[in-house]
Each structure stands twice: as structure tokens, then as C-alpha cells.
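We emphasize that the prediction below concerns an isolated chain of 252 residues; any contacts that depend on oligomerization or on bound cofactors are therefore not represented. The input was used exactly as deposited, without trimming of termini.
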Amino acid sequence: MAQDRMAESAATVKTLYGTENPCYVKGSPELGDIMQKFIYSDVNNQVQMPLAQKELLTIVVLTANATPEDIGIHVKGALNAGATPEEIRETIYQTTPYVGFARAKNALIEMQLAFEEAGIEELANQGTVTDANRVQKGEDTQVAIFGDRMRGFANSGTGDQKHINNWLSGNCFGDYYTRKVLDLKQRELITFTAIITLGCCDPQAKAHVNGNLGVGNTRQDLIDAATIALPYIGYPRTLNAISAINAAAPAK
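Result of the prediction step, given as a C-alpha cell string:
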């Protein structure tokens, strides 16, 4: 069985990355072998998402984890698995309001290097909002995800906190969720994955479990996202993610 796991994982690694191996650790081959078999046999068999989606969510985790040195090889893997350059870039863009500009910027730098190596030319812009409508479009998106209780959110709040609510509508949802290429289901799953990777964001994780369910993702989609993240974020943050899923979408 151990040999089967190694052979199976090696085949997947070759399919995605060719002669490169993201699990290789110079001077520590045992750890590399453990992680290769775990990620590309155990996790790969447990999660039934297409390889391209697994790679895209892995890029989310690496971006949120501030580990850009591993982004390039997973960009190559996503391309080899069938993801488009636009999907890869939008995946990183979508993490930005949750993990911060610096982490997204570092991921985009590594992504661009991988694109250039692959001969991918400059991508078209994908924004859909203007300065005049971004706040309203963002609030409309909040309503579409979380329901009518979000109506009027952009102008809610009091005193020195009011601008944060307005920016949540205009920036977090207006500038990002309204972009082309990815739909709300994809963007909400990216958001949930980024939040559970950060950890210590239990209220937001639970809120976005509900958001995912509201746009048509399932409990299984969320469990799969946590499973993909596990090798990179460890068991404590993964168990917190499972608790957030169970709190909002208990197993039947």
C-alpha cells in the first residue's frame, strides 16, 4: 500500500508539474516523501474536485499563508490541469481584501514570472464597476450572497466606524466580487479558503459558510476546501474550519 501511494502521488506530480516537485525539500527527502504521498495521494483521492480547482485553491492557501515562493510551481500546475491564466489571476485578486495587498502582490509577482516562462501575454482587465456605482454594486452583491438583511449596509454604522461598512460594500464586494471570469460560487469558496488559512477569524469563517451555502456551494465543497488547505495550514486551523462549517451547516 505504501508503494502504491508513492507511485500514485508521483504520477499526479508528473502530470501537474513535469520534472519539478513542490514537495522536494533539499536535505530532508523523508519529509518530502511524506508530504508528497499525503497531498497527492491521500488528499487528492479524498477531494473529488477537478485538479485545476484543487490547484487554484492551493494558490489561495499559499497566498494567504504568505508563502509566495511556492506560487510559481502551482501556477504551472493549474495551467497544466486546465485552468486559464485569467482564472488564476482572478483567484489571487479575490484573496486581496481578506489577506491584504502585500500578500496578494507577492503572489502576483510570482504568478507573472510563471506566466512569462509559459509565454502567456498580458491579460485584459476584468473590472466591471466605476467610481460612481461600485458601492451600490457591492451592496447588491452582499444582498445576493447574504440576503436582504444586507440592504442599506453601505450606509450603516455610526461614528468613526461608518467608513468601514461603506468600504466593505464598495471595496471588498464592489471592487472584487463584481469582476468577470469567476462567478459568486467560485469567489465565495476562495474567500472561505483564504479566511480559514489566516485563522483566528471564526466569526468571518462562519459568516462565509452561510455565504457559500447562499450562492449554491455545499457542505461538501467547504469540507473539500478545508481538506485541500490542511497540509499547508496544519490541523489546528483545519479543525477550527471544520467547527465553523459544523456550526452553520451541520452534517445530516
